[in-house]
Structure formats: C-alpha cells, structure tokens
Amino acid sequence: MVTGTTTPLEAELARIAGAVPDPELPVLTLAELGVLRGVHLTGPGRVEVTLTPTYTGCPAVETMSTDIEQALHGHGIPDVTVVTVLAPAWTTDDISEEGRRKLSEFGIAPPRPQGPAGGPVSLTLAIRCPHCGSTDTELLSRFSSTACKALRRCTACREPFDHFKEL
Amino acid sequence: MTTTDTTAGTATATDPALTSAALALGDDALVLAQRLGEWAGNAPVLEEEVALANIALDLLGQARVLLSLAGDEDELAFLREERAFRNVQLVEQPNGDFAHTIARQLYFSTYQRLLYAALAAGDTPLAGLAAKAVKEVAYHQDHAEHWTLRLGDGTEESHRRMRTACEALWRYTGELFQPLDGLGLDTTALEAAWLDSVTAVLTRAGLPVPSGSRTGAWRAGAGRQGLHTEHFGRLLAEMQHLHRSHPGATW
Per its UniProt record, what Pfam families does this chain match (chain B) (predicted)? Predict the structure, then answer.
C-alpha cells in the first residue's frame, strides 16, 4: 500500500520493492503480504521505504530490509533507508486476494477475513485443507513453524498443514 | 505513529516517567521471553516447544520496541546488573514443571492483554506498539487458558500439579498492578478485570481460586523497585554471558 501523493518514479520504485519475495514465504511478494507501507524519494538518489512487520518480533524484517535495499540499488538508487513502522498495526486482512490464492497453492491455508476486533477468531468458520479441499480439519497447535501460522490436520486426507492464522 | 529502526532505537522517549514505564514493561517482556526460551529442547511435546518459542519471540519483539523507547536495547538487556532491572518477580520465576509455566502464562498473559488494550486506547508513545501487541497476546492468553482447562480438568495428577502451580505463583500477581507513572492507567480497574478473568478460567477448569495473599511479605518492594528473587541472578548470568564475554561481537 502506497499512501500520499506519489510521483511516477516513486510508483515504479514501489513496484520494484513490492516485488521482493518474502524471505519466509517466498511464494508471496512483500506487496501481496501487505507489509510495504510506502516508498518516498527524499532527495536525488535517496529513498525512504516504510515497512511494517507481521508480528512485532518477526525476525524476517531485517532480511526484508536488506532485500529491498539491494533491489533498489539494482535500479540505480544508491541511498536506501528502510524504516519499520508499527502503526497502524498490520492485519491478515492486508494480504491481497492474489496472495491468499498463492498461499493456498503453496499448501498453506490462507487466513479468514476478520472483523475489526482482531485476534483469535471465535466463530468456527471452516478452514479448508490446502491439499484435498476438505473443510473437515482440526487444530493441532495455535503456533507453528513461524509466529504467523497455526498447525492443523485434515481429518479427510490425514495430512498436517499450516494455517496462516488471523491477526 | 510509532517508528522504530530495525537495527537501533531511534525514538527514545524524553519524558522520564514514560521512559521508566517503558523500561519496566520492556523488562517484563524480555525476562519472560528468556524464561520461555529455556523450554527449547525440553518441552513435553514438539508442538508445545514450538508454541512456547513462538510466544517468547513475540515477547522479545515487544521488549525490543519498549527498551528502545528507554535507551539502547542491547546495553539495557546485556549490561545492566540485577538491581537495575524493573521486571515484576512473576516473570523471573523458574519454569518449574509444565503446570508452573502454564500458571505463569495464564496470570501474565491475562494481565498483559488487558494492559495493552488499555494502552492502545490511550495516546502515549506506547499506543502503536500496544495496538499491535494486544493481538499477539490474545493468542498467548488463548493458549494458556486452553492448557489450564486441560490440566485442571484432566487427570488427578494434572489437576494436583496445576493447583499447586496456581497457588505457588499467586503471591506474585499483586505486583502486576502497582501503578506505573506516565501511562495514565487505571490499575484498580485493570486488577478487577484481571481477577474476574482469571477466576472464570480457574472455575471452568475445576480449580479453586487461591486464597493466599497476592503480595510477598517484603515491604521494601519487589521487582519494580529492583528487588528480585534468588532465581533472577542465574537467569541474567545465562542471558548476558555471551555478550559480556565478547563485547561488540557480531554475527
């Protein structure tokens, strides 16, 4: 998401920065994950990128910053600063439709849309198994391979799978 | 808008009351993250190992933001002596058996969720972090509540252990509601909400609400005044050893 007025060059740089793959979920770009907040020219050859973490302690932020710097260096911007912002807080609703589709294709059940409250979804909306498509799945653990995922099992095909949990 | 740099704190708070509040809350998160990290390689099942490490990581992320508001995060974490830490004594208590860890998680995550929700509604520089962290902590509380129900309403043995753990840690819970200057919090309301929530979970789990005092006998104060329990020194020694042995080392 790019906010404020943007010049065509900023839009182009935002596209380049947004196309950087997420280091932990390389099927998604940072734009699809919804963590890129803005790209602004602050001087000739000088750019400030604002990035928001999925979780406060997300260890991938530093790699994301380095990858963005390299991508923009590669497009002739010598001076790149990446600033992390926390507010407004990222939510799984910021993941694009295309991002959700790619997650599912990659074997990760995408997050369900949520209301303004955030946190665990109390209503038991069905989470579909990304392997066989069954909605008959059960929670194994609220926490999985990364902070943003929960571990589930499909009771139809018996395969375990990750679910990008709602935040 | 709360702004942090990924490598160093940039937005150090200037209000001294706010700086000490950020330090106290940052120390809570840091010390509990360190304690939970001790389960790595030791948890009863793999899923729990991953869960406790994930919770620790969330807390560490929150600690980094809070400590950066108070000063240099690395100096604060690795170069302070025991008496300079302002965390509550609850978070430094040893992991004990799994029931002790869950009782500590129940007491602390319930408090932290209420605290962050109140801070998120306020207008201090902590509001941005709090709005984000309250969503993370909702999962920590959910995790602790489910385990409390499962252990309290489980076997005779699990019930006995969970009851013992809840009683053992009860006396550290009063300190959570000591007023912190600079945050504009209604700690009395926070405490009442905490007591309601914890009572409801314990009751559902078939566990008695502990009847003992919720504070220690030591009138000089506790963790918020820099007075810590015997266990804390060893935790710090482990946490700080590498940094102190190799000053300035980087990966």
Answer: PaaA_PaaC
pLDDT digits (tens, 9 = 90+) for A127-150: 999 999 999 999 988 888 888 899
Same domain, A57 and A18: yes
Please count the structural domains in chain A: 2
pLDDT, average across residues B13-39: 94
Extents of the domains making up chain B: 16-174+182-245
- Does B59 contact A144 at a Cβ distance shorter than 8 Å? no
Pick the residue from chain A with its C-alpha nearest to B140: A142
Mean pLDDT of chain A: 89
Residue B7 has pLDDT above 50, yes or no: no
A61, closest residue in chain B (CA to CA): B6
A89-100 pLDDT tens trace: 999 999 999 999
Looking at A29, A57, A84, the residue that finishes a domain is A84
According to DSSP, the residues that pair with A47 across neighbouring strands are A41, A80
In whole angstroms, give the CA distance from residue B54 to residue A58: 10
- pLDDT by residue (tens digit) across B178-207? 999 989 899 999 999 999 999 999 999 999
Per the structure block, which two tokens stand in for B41? 């390689």
Same domain, A64 and A124: no
| Minimum-distance CB partner of A147 among B54, B131, B132 | B54
| Distance between CA atoms of residues B48 and B43, nearest Å | 6
State whether A16 and A76 are in the same domain. yes
Burial-class residue B111 by CB neighbours within 10 Å (0-12, 13-18, 19+). buried
Residue A64 lies in a domain: yes
Domain with A125, as residue range(s), is 95-164
CATH top class, domain B16-174+182-245: mainly alpha
A163 CB within 8 Å of a chain B CB: no
CB B99, CB B168: distance < 8 Å: no
Coil, strand, or helix at residue A62?
helix
